[in-house]
Amino acid sequence: MASANLGKVIEKIVGRVKKEEERPKEETTPETAAEPMPEHVPVQTTLQAKQVYIKSTVLNSLEELENIVAELESGNIVIIRLTPLFDVDLDDVRRAVKKLKKVAQKIDGDIASLGEDRIIVTPSNIKVWRDKS
């Protein structure tokens, strides 16, 4: 019963993120014939390979949010289980998800619900796929 309510709360808060983020994409101009096509260069040589970790954590209190924010700012993906916090106070869950939503927007990341009691927050270079049906 409690986890059904938690899922609704998370979906309600996280669902707002996509509505706020949905804005028209800038159109890119096609390349002209005068611009030379770049040679194929392997990705490993063009980009500095940076380790990105997927970290799973349980949020027991609002004080633990600082560790999660630090992980996100360092470029890691964080999956957060909110059930223990929900068992203590639903308002704390709302505060936590709203703070994570703001952090995701600040770092140009993404946030989504993973079922009833988990959310995922990603850095800017990783987006969560959503079924549009």
Keywords, please?
133 residues, alpha+beta, Translation Initiation Factor IF3, four-stranded mixed β-sheet, 14% strand
SSE layout and pairings?
Blueprint: H1 2-21, H2 43-46, E1 54-58, H3 65-73, E2 77-81, H4 83-88, H5 90-106, E3 110-113, E4 118-122
Parallel strand pairs: 1-2
Antiparallel strand pairs: 2-4, 3-4
Helix pairs in contact: 1-5
Helix vs. strand class: alpha+beta
CATH class: Alpha Beta
Unreliable parts:
17-21
Question: Average pLDDT across residues?
Answer: 79
CATH superfamily placement: SepF-like protein
Total helices: the number is 5
For the secondary structure, the number of strands is 4
Oligomer: single chain
Written account of the structure:
It is a single chain. The chain is of the alpha+beta class and 133 residues long. The protein has a single domain, classed as Translation Initiation Factor IF3. 42% of the residues lie in helices and 14% in strands. The protein has a four-stranded mixed β-sheet with strand order 1-2-4-3. The radius of gyration is 18 Å and the shape is globular. Residues 17-21 have low confidence and may be disordered.
Report a brief summary of the structure:
This protein has 5 helices and 4 strands; from the N terminus they run H-H-E-H-E-H-H-E-E.
